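FORM 12-B: Structure-to-Sequence Request
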């Protein structure tokens, strides 16, 4: 059993990481992830012990962060920031007045601004969380009081709380921005029941019911239009801005918007199985799959704080003991170390950057299943593509029939291919143009990558590639175009020429991908060499391999990976599932309404435009730049302050900036990942 719960008042990213680590150690836990950006916890355990494991997990949450609670079916109400702002303003006024009138006002200001931090610090001690941020901030400020630095003691706590306030504002805006990027969840569905219109939750609509969607409303579930004509805006799903004309018999998808006409839709799935639900689940749960950088930051955070705290103790004790230097001076320098000892800027901003980038991509019709895939995409140097349906339209049409008896050839091929769902088979049936009498067809066997063998009117027929003819022992005359060869009872009847048009954006997309640093593009196809080469020339691909079976494609990808190349494979997500899973990054395109594509790939393009590819690579590279900027900026500032603090140049005011100031700047920088860059 795997369930996700909302976390209320999850304000500390470092605490979120501690919760995740602690819950993962609970006996019986198969998987646990705490998503700071989405304020969610995901827990997986066996059904028979799930409740017991959940209870232990809740204890860990309250132990690490008492203000944070797990909500089951309740609505979240995070603590407001207005009260915090009022408290900051009052304390700041008292802080200023203390300089003018009475130094005792420093104590009053300190209690008003820091009572919650002090209380939390005491609880941290009893919970064994000695090195959490609030405990360290309390030690630093109390230590400043102890050595007579009253103004600095209040300043540490005051500026810490100001930083916390701005962090809350920044994180809140970040979360709202991400939520708005994924604002495709329908609020209600109008169902026709007993001749009456009833407004219900989308989760309460059953398969086969008729829903009514009026102009301007979001379509709640996937289904087929049974009445009405309209235009549908699918941009929230596919990123495509052009509306789609929709009439009776057409499919519509949950999350898209009905623009101008009333339509009646017969639902084909429950809300949980709808396209919109799957998209939201993929994006919201993407934080479960962490990038290499995130894992590094997690490991770094575990050691950084203890190391800095130990350094602070050594700095406070060794110079006075060994060299009889001033205790107050070296304690003050040690307190600077304590203030900058929490790696919150990294722990908050890095996950937010990835989550923002993934949220932005979803708005453009690109589903990225995890930060690990977003990071991997930025490092690819080799792009491998399937030809049919990826570079070409996949809309096959019969253009020529070469046979002594064209009617016999076409009829035989159409009957044999009538049970196949392959686009080539459908084009032959369409060209035949007559009703198929399936009683004439039996014992149909599809041979992967080659064609079909079928019993038609009691005679064994082979319809497919040259290799199928060779395996059947049939001699044929070769054709340079995409040809389907036909034989009956071992006798060659002729061939059918099939044409497939190249998509208008394919060549430009591959050119742009090369400009982005991908130095090799490779086309893999089961088609013949001449056709494959002509497509490769048209889109300027570097290499092309033809006449490949599905297992041959996997071998080619493995060969490239063995050469040390970082490979992304782009295919249709159905026939190419083995190759998608073998590549470093598997990309399925044209996945709107396709369960197989959504399940099999690491990255999913919701429409069939190859133009999404350079867009995804740009977004990935931009997100990684923001992540690196935050890491370098945060570590550099902290390192400088630690060095300056050790030499007595940096004071605690500077240290507070190094902690909360840097964190706020890093969060604001992370929010740029959500903005679409033209």
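FORM 12-B RESPONSE
SEQUENCE OUT:
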């Amino acid at each position: 059993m795997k369930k996700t719960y909302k976390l209320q008042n999850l304000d500390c990213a470092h605490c979120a990481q501690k919760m995740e680590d602690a819950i993962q150690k609970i006996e019986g836990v198969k998987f646990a992830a705490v998503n700071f950006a989405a304020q969610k916890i995901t827990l997986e355990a066996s059904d028979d012990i799930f409740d017991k494991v959940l209870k232990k997990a809740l204890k860990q949450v309250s132990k690490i962060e008492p203000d944070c609670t797990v909500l089951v079916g309740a609505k979240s109400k995070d603590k407001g920031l207005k009260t915090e702002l009022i408290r900051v303003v009052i304390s700041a006024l008292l802080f200023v007045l203390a300089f003018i009138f009475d130094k005792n006002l420093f104590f009053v200001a300190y209690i008003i601004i820091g009572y919650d931090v002090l209380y939390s610090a005491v609880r941290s001690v009893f919970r064994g969380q000695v090195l959490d941020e609030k405990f360290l901030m309390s030690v630093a400020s109390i230590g400043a009081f102890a050595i007579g630095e009253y103004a600095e003691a209040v300043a540490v706590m005051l500026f810490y709380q100001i930083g916390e306030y701005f962090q809350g504002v920044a994180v809140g805006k970040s979360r709202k921005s991400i939520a708005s990027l994924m604002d495709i969840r329908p609020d209600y569905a109008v169902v026709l029941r007993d001749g009456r219109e009833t407004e219900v939750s989308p989760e309460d609509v059953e398969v086969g019911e008729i829903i009514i969607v009026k102009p301007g409303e979001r379509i709640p579930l996937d289904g087929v239009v049974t009445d009405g004509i309209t235009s549908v805006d699918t941009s929230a799903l596919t990123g495509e801005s052009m509306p789609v004309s929709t009439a009776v018999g057409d499919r519509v998808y949950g999350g898209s918007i009905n623009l101008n006409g009333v339509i009646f839709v017969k639902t084909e799935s429950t809300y949980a199985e709808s396209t919109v639900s799957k998209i939201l689940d993929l994006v919201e749960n993407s934080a479960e799959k962490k990038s290499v950088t995130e894992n590094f930051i997690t490991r770094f955070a575990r050691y950084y704080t203890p190391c800095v705290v130990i350094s602070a103790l050594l700095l406070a004790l060794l110079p006075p003991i060994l060299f009889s230097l001033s205790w107050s001076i070296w304690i003050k320098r040690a307190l600077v170390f304590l203030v900058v000892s929490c790696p919150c800027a990294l722990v908050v901003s890095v996950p937010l950057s990835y989550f923002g980038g993934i949220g932005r991509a979803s708005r453009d019709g690109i589903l990225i299943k995890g930060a690990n895939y977003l990071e991997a995409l930025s490092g690819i140097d080799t792009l491998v593509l399937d030809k049919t349906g990826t570079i070409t339209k996949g809309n096959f049409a019969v253009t020529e029939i070469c046979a002594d008896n064209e009617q016999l050839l076409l009829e035989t091929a159409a009957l044999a291919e009538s049970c196949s769902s392959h686009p080539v088979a459908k084009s032959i049936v369409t060209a035949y143009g007559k009703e198929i009498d399936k009683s004439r067809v039996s014992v149909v066997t599809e041979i992967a990558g080659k064609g079909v063998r079928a019993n038609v009117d009691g005679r064994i027929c082979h319809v497919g590639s040259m290799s199928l003819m060779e395996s059947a022992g049939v001699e044929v005359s070769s054709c340079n175009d995409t040809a389907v060869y036909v034989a009956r009872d071992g006798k060659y009847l002729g061939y059918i020429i099939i044409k497939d048009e190249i998509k208008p954006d394919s060549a430009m997309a591959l050119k742009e991908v090369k400009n982005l640093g991908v130095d090799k593009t490779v086309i893999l196809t089961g088609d013949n060499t001449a056709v494959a080469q002509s497509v490769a020339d048209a889109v300027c691909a570097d290499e092309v391999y033809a006449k490949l079976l599905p297992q041959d494609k996997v071998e080619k990808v493995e060969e490239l990976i063995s050469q040390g190349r970082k490979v992304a494979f782009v295919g249709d997500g159905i026939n190419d599932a083995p190759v998608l899973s073998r590549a470093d990054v598997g990309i399925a395109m044209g996945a709107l309404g396709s369960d197989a594509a959504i399940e099999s790939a690491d990255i999913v393009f919701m429409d069939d435009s190859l133009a999404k590819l350079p867009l995804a690579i740009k977004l990935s590279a931009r997100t990684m730049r923001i992540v690196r900027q935050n890491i370098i900026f945060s570590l550099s500032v902290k390192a400088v302050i630690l060095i300056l603090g050790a030499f007595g140049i940096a004071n605690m005011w500077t240290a507070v900036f190094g902690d909360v100031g840097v964190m706020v700047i890093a969060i604001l920088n992370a929010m740029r990942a959500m903005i679409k860059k033209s």
